[in-house]
Amino acid sequence: MMKLERKISAYLGLLGLIILGFACGQQEEKTEVKKATAVLEAEEADGKYPYKRLSTYGFFEGEITDLAAGENVVLYKPASSLFTDYAWKSRFVYFPEGEVAQINNEEEIDFPEGSVIIKNFYYPVDFRDPEKGKRIIETRLMINGEEGWEAWPYIWNDEQTDAVLKVVGGSTEVSFTNAAGEEQLIDYIVPNKNQCKSCHNKSEIMAPIGVKVKHLNNELDYGSQTKNQLAFWSEQGYLNGFKGLEAHPAMINYETESLPLDDRAMAYLDINCSHCHSAEGPASTSGLFLTHDQKDPMKLGINKTPVAAGNGAGSFTFDIYPGHGDESIMTHRMNSTEVGVAMPEIGRTTIHKEGVQLIRDWINSMESE
Amino acid sequence: MKKFLSLTLLLSGLILVGCSTSSDEQTFDSSQLNRASVEEVEKIVEAFIMAEDGDVIEIPAGFYSFNTQLIIDNKTDITITGQGMEETVLSFRELKAGGEGIKLVGNNITIENLTVEDAPGDGVKAQHTDGMTFRKINVTWTNGDKSKNGTYAIYPVQCKNVMIDGVIASHSRDAGIYVGQSENIIVKNSLAFGNVAGIEIENCDNSEVFDNVARDNAAGILVFNLPGLPKADGKGTKIYNNEIIENNHENFATALSDEPNGNTVTMIPPGSGVVLLAAKEVEIFNNNILRNKTTGVAIASYQITGFPSEAPNWSPYTTDIYVHDNTYERTMDFPDLTRELGQLISVYNAHGKAKTQDIVYDGIFNPDLGADITSNPMRVCITEAGMEEMHFTLFDLSEGEDNIQASPDYTPFQNCQVTVNTQVESLASM
Asked: I need a surface site. Which of A306, A358, B22, B190 has the fewest CB within 10 A?
C-alpha cells in the first residue's frame, strides 16, 4: 500500500511539475498581454470616480508628462513643503466647471463637490539641471465626493505614458543626482490608500493639508505672471471670500534663511508634523501638538517626557531638551530611518538633513536650564 | 530620584548573582505554516482598504508577510477573523513604513482568531473606536534580540468600550496589553509574558482586569496616569483574580547598557508584581501575587520619577487605593538593582537589605490634605491576611536622598476601605 501510494504521489508530483511549468509559462505570457492592454485600453470619462487611469481625468494638456494644467485646473504651492524623500512635487486643483470655492472664517477653504486635488511626485534625473528630464513616480488625488474627501494613489508606468490606480500602494527604487552632484538611490514607497489618512486626518475625517488659506496666502510664479495665489484664484473665478493678503493668516517658507529661526522652525514643524500632532490629528495621543501657533511649552515638547514612543525615545528623556539639539527625542526621530523610530511615520525613507539641522539649531538656540 | 550610587557600589557584588531572567518563549512555531502568495497577501490589503460597514474580513490559514499596513479607516461593524492563532499569522517583519502593523478606527470592530508578528512599532492599534473587541489574538515578536521588538502588542487608545478577551501578548518592549486614554475597559482571560510590562492601564476610566495571567514580564500589571495628555487623568480600576507570577524579566525597554530614558516604563524595576503610579481609585483583590523578586505591589506617586510633575487637570499623587485579600509569596532572589527604584527598595526597605517586599508605599502625599502620612491623607487602604508576617515598607523620602527613612508600620493603612466604581456593565454584550 505504502509503496503504491508513494508511486502514485510521485507520478502526480511529476505531472504537477509539468503542469506547473506549463501553467507558469502561459501565465507569464498572459500577464504581459494584460499589462499591455491595461495601458492601451481606453477608459470612458463617465464621471464615476475614481477612474482606473490618471489620463482619463484629462487634467493635463499636451504631453501628460509635462504636467501642464488643463482646463479648470490651477497650479498651487504651499509656503512650506512637506518633506517626501527629496521628491519634487507639482500640485494642482481641479474645479468642476462653473463651481467656486469659498473661504470660511478667514482660514479654511471650502471646496465644491467634485473638486480634485492633484499632487504629482517626481525626480529630475539631475537636480542641478531639471531640463535633463525627470521620472514621475506617483500622482495622488484627493477627490471631494458626495461623502467628503477621499484619496486615491496612482502609480506611473515605466514608459511614463500614464499612471494606474493602485489602492495597495507599492514601492520602487529611484536614482537621481542631488543638488550637491551626489548620486542618490532611494527606496521610494507609495502609501496604500488608507495610509493617506495617517496624515490627512482631522478627527477621523479625511482632510486636505496644503490647500489652506495660511499656506496659499503668498506669491506664486505662474509663468505668465507672479501673483498671490488666492488673488489669482479669485481673479480666475475659482474662489470667493479673499480679502487680501493682510486680512488672512500667512505662513512663511522655512527655507528662507533671512527669516527668524523660531519662525522657520515652527513653519517646518507645522507643515511636516502638525497634521498628526494636533488636537484633531491621530497623534493627539502623545500630547505633543506642533502647530505653528503653539505657545504652550509642554505641548511643544519642551521638557516633556514621551508617552508611547517606545524605541523612538532612543536614550533621551525629553522631546525637546532646551539647548541640546542632539539630545532631544524630536531630532532623534527625525534623524532616523528605522521603522518604529522614524518620524513622520510614513512618507519618507531618507533623512531630511536640512530639516534636522534647522530643528537642531532651533533647540540649541533655546536657553538651557 | 537621584542615584543611590554609593549603595549601589556597596551592593555591586549582588548584581552579579541577582540577575534578571530573559524569555524567548514562543507559543507556537509559525514557520511551519504555508506562505501566502503575493496575490493572497494583496487581497487581504485590499479587503482592509475597500472595507465597507458590516464587512467580515475572513483571513484563511497561512503565513502572510506584509510590506504595508493594514488599516480600517473609520468603518462600523467590522469583523476581522482568522482561522485561529496557530493557523492565521500576519507578519509585519517586512513593513517599510508606518507606526503599527494593523490600525483600526471606527465603531464596533472585532479582531479575532489570528496572530500578529514582528511589527516594527506597535502590533495592533485601535484609535477613536467605540466598541473595540480583541478576542483570541496572539501578538508577539520573534526576534532573538529583543531590543528590536516593538512598543505595544495590543494598543487601544482614545477608545470607548474596549473588550480584550483571551489574548496572548508577549515580548513587547513596553507593555504587552496597553490600554491608554480610554473609557470602559475589560481585560480578561488573557496571558502576557516576556514583555517589559504585562498589562498596563494608562489615563483610563472604568477598567476591570481579571482572570489573567501576567508572568515573566519585568512588571506584571501597571496602572499609570501620565501628565500632559488630552485625557488628562484617569480613575476607577479593579484588578482581581489574576495570576501575577515571577515577573522577574530584565527590563529591556532600553538597551541593557543604557540608562532609562524618558519613557516611564524604562524606570520600572524588574521583579515588580503590580505598580501604581499617579493612580486614582484602584482596587486590587483576590490575586495571586507570587515570587516577584522586588515587590508584590508598589504604590507610588509620579514625583518619584524625578520628571516634571505639573500638568493641567492632573495630579501626580496616587490616591484612593484598596489592596485586600491577595495571596503573596516572596522569593529568596535578590531584588532588582538595575533601576533606581529597585535600588531604593533593595537598600532602604524596612525588613533588611536585599529582601523581597510584598507591598511598598513611597509615602509621598499632598501636604494640603494632611500634615502627616500616618493620618493616611491619600486614602491608601490595605487589608491582607497575616499582615504581620508580610514585608510591608512605608518610605519617607521627604528629607531627600541623603536621609531616606523606611518603616514597617502598616497600621495607618488598616481598618479602612475604598469603594471603587468601574461601571463596565455596558461591556456585558461584547
From this structure: B22
How does residue B21 score in pLDDT terms, banded at 50, 70 and 90? confident
Distance in angstroms (rounded) separating the CA atoms of residues B63 and B111? 17
Give me Rg for the CA atoms of chain A. 24
Binary contact (B226, A307; C-beta < 8 A):
yes
Quote the pLDDT of residue B6: 45
Averaged pLDDT, A290-310 = 93
Label the pairing between strands B295-300 and B357-361: parallel
Instruction: Tell me the three cell numbers of residue A287.
Output: 500630547
Query: Which residue of A149, A285, A288, A320 is the best one to mutate when testing the B interface, meaning the one whose CB has the most B CBs within 10 A?
Result: A285
- DSSP three-state, residue B148: helix
Q: What are phi and psi of A299, to 5 degrees?
A: -65, -25
Rounded to 5 degrees, φ, ψ at B88 are -110, 115
Report the Cα B411 to chain-centroid distance in Å. 29
Contacts of A205 in chain B (CB under 8 A): 74
Rounded to 5 degrees, what angle do the CA atoms A321, B150, A199 make? 70
Average pLDDT over residues A124-133: 96
Nearest-angstrom CA–CA distance, B279 and A182: 54
ipTM reported for the complex surpasses 0.90: no
The DSSP bridge pattern shows strands B70-81 and B56-58 to be parallel
What's the distance, Cα to Cα, between the start and end of chain B in Å?
Answer: 43
Which residues contact residue B428 at a Cβ distance below 8 angstroms, ignoring those fewer than 6 apart?
Answer: none
pLDDT tens, position by position, B190-231: 999 999 999 999 999 999 999 999 999 999 999 999 999 999
- Mean pLDDT calculated for residue range B319-334: 96
User: Rounded mean pLDDT of B401-417?
Assistant: 95
The pTM assigned to this predicted structure is 0.90
B18 confidence band (pLDDT: 50, 70, 90): low
In the predicted model, what is the mean pLDDT of chain B? Answer: 93
Closest residue in A to B310 (Cα) is A298
Does a cis peptide bond (omega within 30 degrees of 0) precede residue B230?
Answer: no
Q: What are phi and psi of A244, to 5 degrees?
A: 100, 155
Q: Please report, for chain A, the start and end positions of each structural domain, with discontinuous segments joined by +.
A: 54-247, 261-364
